[in-house]
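no rush on this but wanted to send it before i forget. theres a chain ive been looking at and ive put its sequence and its fold in token form underneath. i want to understand how the tokens follow from the sequence so walk me through it. thanks a lot i owe you, the record is right below:
>
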Amino acid sequence: MNQRASGILLHPTSLANAYPIGDLGPAATAFVDFMFTSGQRRWQMLPIGPTGGENSPYQSSSAFAGNPLLISPDRLVEQGFLNHQDIVPLISKDAGSVNYPEAERLKLGWLKKAFEHFEKNRHGGRQSEFDAFVRAESFWLENFSLFSAIQENEGTADWTRWKKELRTRQQEAILRAQKHFSDEIHYHQFVQWQFSVQWKELRTYCASKGIQLIGDIPLFVAHHSADVWAHPELFKLDADGNPTVVAGVPPDYFSKTGQLWGLPVYRWEALQAQDYRWWIERLRMALTRFDVNRLDHFIGFVRTYEVPAQDKTALNGQYQPGGGASFFKAVREELGLLSFIADDLGATSPEVVALLDQLQISGTRVLQFEFGSIVQTNSVPPEPHPLQTVVYTGTHDNDTTAGWYGKLPAPQRKALQEKLGGNDRKIVWAMIGAALASQADTAIVPAQDLLELGSEARMNFPGMAKGNWGWRLKDGALTQELAQRLRSLTMEYGRLKTGEPSHVSWDQKADPTPLIAKRAYELFERRGRQSGQTFQDWLHAEQEIKLEAIR
């Protein structure tokens, strides 16, 4: 992450294909090809676990499992688990948005059929591969597959409503359930194995193009999850297994009454007593899937905003200490130096800033927030972003840039045009240019902004329970012309060197010494841009830049 680069924020569910939901199949590799052509080297996603209430990827039934709906039926055909005729008659033509009920109906049906084929044929040498996967992932897979089987039998994921012996995980009851639901358990293990196989294929393809994957780790997990059911001692629950307090945030930019997430809160002292094993295993899994991981709601690691579980708003919450430095020290000792992005937006405290500095974790900047504040107060531009930062035009929680701009009062739109040098028609790409021009090591642009889409393409409305997570690309939207436009701008701002393939870092090729390269770009930010030069023009005086940078 210390190389100057840029990327795109796009969740796989938003990919365009012939099915009711995007997945890890041909559409994903086609998107990687688009990124390669456009010079992008970071693909950022939202959490990839099974979605929870209202299809939110931030309320998953497992902190470890992959979303079955992301499994590609095309890849199942390629592996011989399905025949092409099994899926062609059922292909959906609705590509306007994600159709979660239809995706669940079709894809789970295909997965059942693929599992039956696997069980019937034992599929040659694949059985040993499957067995090895089950053994390797036993820490979480055993609980998750049993949880999923019981959930289907009980008709609810709310484990507090299950039979008492299962709700409280009495040993004899668990052993009986494992025996009784053995077929269902094997099915869920098969599904997770196939997710792992397809994920590894996609990640290998990304690596071949020099593209890093950025994952997203929610701080909290859903109450109706295998994790809380299997490890109730790690959460603040009452005797019946219900949360006594839930997580949220106080009133903020997104909501005047705060955000009430309804997610159980950790007992950090219990986690510490177990050497943070659950969290460390969770991060270990994330490392097998992603090159870099965003820590959602990083502030919560320092202090968590807890709201009484019975409250209807987040107004009456209070802060309680999180894991803090002790937790990250244990993570580093167990897993080594890790590459994280901290979602440090919101009401930070001196303790949060100090922990970020101590850990040397990249922070986050969002231009909609920064420029919105600037045009409202008519103040000077913000301070240059630190190098170790990820800058976004907007995130999945923001409106699209076009939608955001359209809602600004006319005087603020005019002020923004003056500051960015664009008009109504060009303002979105002026914002994209501002992100790429930042001295931050990494710049990320949501796919919706590249396409200049309005509020109809927004991914999430924080504080609104329904109507989120459904946006999808239209087939053919990511054109070669768009790729070339993005590539040119990426090169102009020094995030890709002229003549180099997109997977070669600017730092490696523009200068063998990354520190000098970064100092050179800082000089360009201070002096070159003022004279109207592009970064490529600036590079023509490379020797002079090096000498002055060294001085």
